[in-house]
Design brief:
The chain is of the alpha+beta class. The chain has helices at about 80-90, 135-140, 145-155, 185-190, 195-210, 215-225; strands spanning about 20-25, 30, 35-40, 45, 50-55, 55, 75-80, 105, 120, 125-130, 160-165, 165-170, 175-180, 215, 240. Strands 4-1-8-7-11-10-9-13 form an 8-stranded mixed beta sheet. A 3-stranded antiparallel beta sheet has the order 6-5-12, with no helix packed on it. It has a two-stranded antiparallel sheet with strand order 2-3. The protein is globular, with a radius of gyration of 17 Å.
């Protein structure tokens, strides 16, 4: 296995528009003894539609509900092209669902998704909320204790979404971008580290639009502003983990 930990440079052909390459659901629970939990990270492609509900994909499971799940992390999407690049770089077999994703995209770079961007896939409508941060369960699943560091260095997080309109998504569905906020701050920007300008643009947009942001995303933006000597004030009413709602 390669020990390189460099940002992945992946070319995704977006000229024909994005599509859902596969929809994935939990195949069986994965035991993580060191964390005393059973995880739903073992997802595999379905030959039927996947029902997307407010609190997550039907049949999905989160072993660590303190850090996973909730309405802002209801659906996880990852680009097939990026996962394939990880497979080559890491010398691993990584089929659809290997990153615990519900939606596998093709022709759509999930890391270039703007925070607050809305998609229609099948009969469901989704809103991009936050990047995925690698955890110990992810490293255990991949079988590499350094995986969190490698994944972070790769700079390709994939996007979490909230479900704005419940519905079903299937392999082959087109990804229709319904709205893309003008602030332009992407999931990848947030994962790799917000600049003070990014942070201010994101927080200003949320306040102007009345959009509730994922709690840790707000924290990252505030930290970026503090480091620049700027005021990080932001209304508590516009930040939430989305869990317990």
């Amino acid at each position: 296995m390669s020990t390189a930990a460099t940002a992945l440079d992946v070319a995704i052909d977006t000229s024909r528009g994005g599509r859902i390459g596969a929809v994935c659901a939990v195949a069986q629970l994965f035991e993580v003894p060191e964390r005393s939990l059973m995880s739903g990270i073992d997802k595999r492609a379905l030959d039927r539609p996947l029902r997307l509900l407010t609190h997550g994909a039907l049949g999905d499971v989160q072993g660590d509900r303190e850090n996973h799940g909730g309405i802002f992390k209801a659906v996880y999407a990852y680009s097939r092209e990026v996962r394939a690049a990880y497979a080559v770089e890491s010398e691993l077999e990584l089929p659809d669902g290997s990153f615990g994703e519900n939606l596998v995209t093709t022709g759509q770079d999930t890391d270039e998704t703007v925070i607050g961007e809305r998609w229609r896939v099948g009969t469901a409508e989704l809103e991009a909320t936050t990047p995925r941060n690698p955890c110990g369960t992810f490293a255990a699943w991949i079988g590499d204790p350094r995986w969190g560091r490698r994944f972070t260095a790769g700079g390709r997080a994939g996007a979490y979404f909230r479900v704005m309109v419940e519905g079903e998504a299937s392999a082959g569905d087109a990804i229709e971008v319904l709205d893309r906020p003008a602030h332009g701050i992407t999931i990848g920007d947030a994962f790799r580290g917000l600049t003070p300008g990014d942070a201010r643009a994101l927080l200003d947009w949320a306040q102007e639009s009345g959009t509730v942001l994922y709690d840790s995303l707000v924290g990252s933006a505030q930290n970026a502003l503090r480091r620049a000597g700027e005021d990080p004030a932001f209304p508590d009413a516009l930040r939430s983990t989305g869990r317990g709602l």
